[in-house]
Amino acid sequence: MPAQRGSRAQAAPPAPAAAGPQIQLIPAPADGALDAAEEAVDLLLDSGRAPGDVLVLTTGEQHPWAAHELSFGEKTYWAQHDAREDVFYAAASAAGRTTGRPVVVVAVNGGADDDAVRALPDAMAKAGSLLIVCGDPQRINSLIGSGA
Fold first, then answer.
1. N or C: which end of the chain has fewer CB within 10 A?
2. What DSSP element (H or E) covers 127?
3. Topology (CATH) of 27-147
4. Residue of 23, 37, 21 whose CA lies nearest to 134
5. pLDDT tens per residue, range 24-65
6. Nearest Cα to Cα of residue 20 among 103, 128, 134
């Protein structure tokens, strides 16, 4: 239908802002998910992201940094989390204790399926602008499907 003389075309309303963080999936086998997460953190830091902006959660074995820091005691370990001065590594099962950060990286590196199912939506809720999930895409998809 032709526009009538004198009428103005209506501009489409702007698209609503995406709800929640941007999500990136980095395919990796379970035994390589931690390495993939480390590479993602390195890229974030190299691109200018502040270390205190990044939280890394693992569904299986703890990140070596977390295991080392926990050897000095929980109080010291969690004080580093609260200081928000550096990248913080934690088990996904400790998600109730971690607070949100602009970027959350999840290494789906094993662990019980129930823990991983809980970890993914919790990580999404904690991520301010970016959620990076490292792991086997088939496992991640099955976890998301079984958690719905």
1. N
2. strand 127-135
3. Rossmann fold (3.40.50)
4. 37
5. 999 999 999 999 999 999 999 999 999 999 999 999 999 999
6. 128
SS3 label, residue 25: strand
The letter for the amino acid at 92 is A
Count of alpha carbons within 13 angstroms of residue 3, beta-carbon side: 6
User: Which of these, 47, 20, 28, 5, lies nearest to 123 by C-alpha position?
Assistant: 20
Structure tokens of 40? 């993602």
The DSSP output letter for 126 is H
Return the domain boundaries, the chain.
27-147
Please give the angle made by the CA atoms of 84, 110 and 54, to the nearest 5 degrees: 15
* Bridge partners of residue 25, in order along the sequence: 133
